[in-house]
Amino acid sequence: MRIGIIGAGGVGGYFGARLATAGDEVTFVARGRHLAAIREHGLTVRSPLGDMRVPSDAVVPSISDLAAPDLIVVAVKLWDTEDVARQLAPLAEGGAAVVSFQNGVRKDTVLGRHLPAGSILGGVSYISAFIEEPGVVVHNGTLQRLVFGEYDRKESPRSRLFLDRCLAAGIDAEISGDIERTIWEKFVFLVGLSATTSAVRQPIGVVRGTAGSRSLLRDVMHEVVDVGRAKGVALDPGFADDRLAFCDTLPATMSSSMHNDLLRGNRLEVGWLSGAVADLGAELGVATPRNRAVADILSPYALGDPAAAA
């Protein structure tokens, strides 16, 4: 396949490198120092599953530089989605499929404002990876999984082809028969992990091991389940307890990307996570006091370290 990867960070860099190594024609869109480093030295991915290197000619600075891709993977931060969607419109109208592996439940709604509805596949990624330095992506652990599918719940030729390419690349991948539910199921856990590790400023081991913060974790996730069910998503009423039990199996040192961004003084996705839960709850008449509190607590840091901006 000809695959365009918008964003060469942890998600886009890792999965794109795997596909490129397996023989697919992968082109990354990157910017800034990351772009400059890849152009000079190529993209290096360090992983317990095997290191990879993508040559320097596989990166371009603009979406308009992509040459008729079959599939476009969106892997940028959520606040860039609207701008990316506008730029993707000509490619999607020309027949390219688009799948976002970003966080959140509103990403495909934003894409749908600018792209043909039939061009969009739903997608979820499971991986811990990050840019260690410009031109270098590091994969933590061995978890690396993609789940995707059509919103009409039918298995399409394009989703089957992408699955085949992922499996050939050694990616743990699956087609979901209910991708909206799959996205929400990840969202429940993601919001819980992001909200609590960021608000408490500690990894999951501390959060789950202290009575008060454990209660916060459970309540945050339960509110997400309530909002999802109010939207008509077929989430089990007890799914928050299931995810709490899952949190007990995680390495104690595990944290969230939002917590890492907070510690580094970077911009946060809180408005798309707990903030989105609170906003959707208000629209649907569902109480979300825990998520609203987290969104309010983190609001001074939403655009980065307030001390740096002072």
UniProtKB/TrEMBL annotation:
Residues 178-300 form the Ketopantoate reductase C-terminal domain. It comes from the Bacteria. Keywords: NADP, Oxidoreductase, Pantothenate biosynthesis. Gene3D superfamilies: N-(1-d-carboxylethyl)-l-norvaline Dehydrogenase, domain 2 (1.10.1040.10), NAD(P)-binding Rossmann-like Domain (3.40.50.720). Residues 3-152 form the Ketopantoate reductase N-terminal domain. GO terms for molecular function: 2-dehydropantoate 2-reductase activity. Its EC number is 1.1.1.169. One of its GO terms (cellular component) is cytoplasm. It catalyses: (R)-pantoate + NADP(+) = 2-dehydropantoate + NADPH + H(+). It holds the Pfam family ApbA. GO terms for biological process: pantothenate biosynthetic process. Pathway: Cofactor biosynthesis; (R)-pantothenate biosynthesis; (R)-pantoate from 3-methyl-2-oxobutanoate: step 2/2. Catalyzes the NADPH-dependent reduction of ketopantoate into pantoic acid. Belongs to the ketopantoate reductase family. This is 2-dehydropantoate 2-reductase. It comes from Streptomyces malaysiensis.
